Amino acid sequence: MHWRQIPLGILQTNCYLLYNEKKDCVIFDPGAEGKKLLSFLKKERFNPLAILLTHAHFDHIGAVDEIRDEYQIPVYVHKKEAGWLGNSAVNGSAHFVPNHPVTAKPADKFISEEGVFEVGPFSLEVFETPGHSPGSVSYYSKELEVVFAGDTLFKEGIGRTDLVDGNAEQLLRSIHDKLLSLPEETYVLPGHGPVTTVQDEMDGNPFLNGY
Where's the Metallo-beta-lactamase domain (predicted)? Predict the structure, then answer.
């Protein structure tokens, strides 16, 4: 398996592809620029099987419908954010981009618990990592030694908690109990910015010192 990072939109939200040698893939957080993403998928002959949302903030869902409609594939989100895709007030777009509210049709399937997540040939471990948002989840691939962490943990940073139902203590607990418990060599693939590792964040993330 392989992965690829594709920053999209004005906030440069990291969309990720997880794919195999046959170019079957799952798409994490197609946040914006649907036409650009579609063009890339078709040019590279990818075969998308599902869209996985780490959470449902507007900058992570902007291209959901365009990709879903083109490939007729299911969208997954945590059940706690089932109503967020269609609600610009809770997904943040009403506040941050009031002249261009971002919405999407409801998700097709819902994450309701931690455990092994399988779609097509892909098998991942899903962790509930709330704090940035109540339904934030992270997807871990032991085979690739990567975790798709959404906006929970960044290089030398953590997710903001001043949005709808954010919780700072919960966020730090999610990071400590779930992400920092992974092998130190695990690559952390964040929702924004550069890739980091569990080891680097344990050693140098100023927000985690002393927790």
Answer: 12-192
